[in-house]
Specification:
alpha/beta; D-Maltodextrin-Binding Protein, domain 2; five-stranded mixed beta sheet; 14 helices; 11 strands; 19% strand
Length: 318
């Protein structure tokens, strides 16, 4: 399977690096840790790369290696295997990983609201989610897309069963720009921004405005063992990352420099537009236990989780 091959590639790449935790480091030397992202580097990760390049991790005594995953679902396996110390996870992936027996725990949030949305052309017939009754919406084929469509249409007083789903993979931008579908699921900070950059005005119906609670989309996760045995490293990683995101909000051009230094293939204008959209919600913060409980109920109701999740165990609540 592609996912298994991708995982193997990442594991092999990591096996050639120094072991997690920097156990053989000289006394007083920075502690080597590895952090794997949820996706290929982009503006949502700008604070992490700023913390790395501006020396914020070094200030906390850490030498952080940032790695892109082979697939978004690789991170829990890499954490469990001890190949990385920390991971950025989509909150739904964290819940699913725990259902599958991975002892991963959220230790901090990064983005303070959901990024999922339904996107429709501004001049088109879909002016609100319930207008999708009898129309086509492009979906990737992932269960999370179905949850977004069902939640939004139902919350707006429509019948989700009357919406025609068309599987378009990860081609939301081209499909909507070409008029192949009436609307599409997508991240308002990514596909939504990309469409506007293309000159395609869109309406973005954000899922937390239609049925979903304002859950944090991305979280930093570690294993129970790391949290128990190395709490100082956990706190240092969180503190430095928070400084990185503060810089990304206050000095976005500097943060973009740091991001593009790590991945020169990225288009600066696209990433700048994404960062502008994200800045109001891009800051690490403690978890809100009540919001997490509402999120777990929502995920269960819409089939993203198969059983009730104990958020007091799945997240480190201060």
């Amino acid at each position: 399977m592609r996912r298994a091959a991708a995982l193997l590639a990442v594991v092999l790449a990591l096996s050639g690096a120094a072991g997690c935790g920097g156990g053989d480091a000289e006394p007083g030397a920075p502690k080597g840790v590895a952090l794997v992202l949820d996706f290929a580097p982009n503006a949502v990760h700008s604070g992490i790369y700023a913390a790395q390049r501006q020396g914020f991790y070094a200030d906390e005594g850490l030498d952080v290696t940032v790695r892109a995953p082979g697939a978004s679902t690789d991170a829990p396996r890499l954490l469990e295997a001890g190949r990385v110390d920390f991971a950025v996870l989509d909150i739904h992936d964290l819940g699913i990983a725990r259902e599958r027996g991975f002892a991963v725990i959220g230790v901090a949030s990064i983005v303070q609201r959901p990024l999922a949305s339904i996107l429709a052309r501004r001049e088109g017939p879909v002016r609100r989610p319930r207008d999708l009754e009898g129309r086509t919406v492009g979906v990737t084929g992932l269960p999370s897309d179905e949850a977004v469509v069902d939640s939004e249409v139902a919350a707006d007083g429509g019948d989700p069963a009357l919406v025609e789903r068309v599987t378009i993979g990860f081609n939301a931008v081209s499909a909507l720009a070409a008029g192949k579908v009436d609307a599409t699921t997508g991240f308002w900070n990514a596909e939504g921004v990309a469409l506007r950059q293309r000159g395609v005005p869109v309406r973005a119906f954000k899922v937390d405005r239609y049925g979903a609670p304002p859950y944090p989309e991305l979280v930093i996760a570690a294993t129970r063992e790391t949290i128990r045995n190395d709490p100082n490293t956990v706190e240092a990683l969180i503190a430095a990352t928070a400084r990185g995101y503060e810089l990304a909000v206050e000095r976005p051009q500097t943060a973009l420099d740091d991001l593009l230094a790590a991945d020169p293939s990225l288009d600066r204008a696209d990433q700048a537009a994404q960062l502008r959209a994200l800045r109001p919600d891009l800051h690490p913060a403690p978890f809100d236990a009540d919001v997490l409980r509402e999120w777990a109920v929502w995920d269960l109701e819409y089939g993203l989780l198969e059983r009730s999740l104990d958020v007091d165990v799945a997240f480190r609540l201060n």
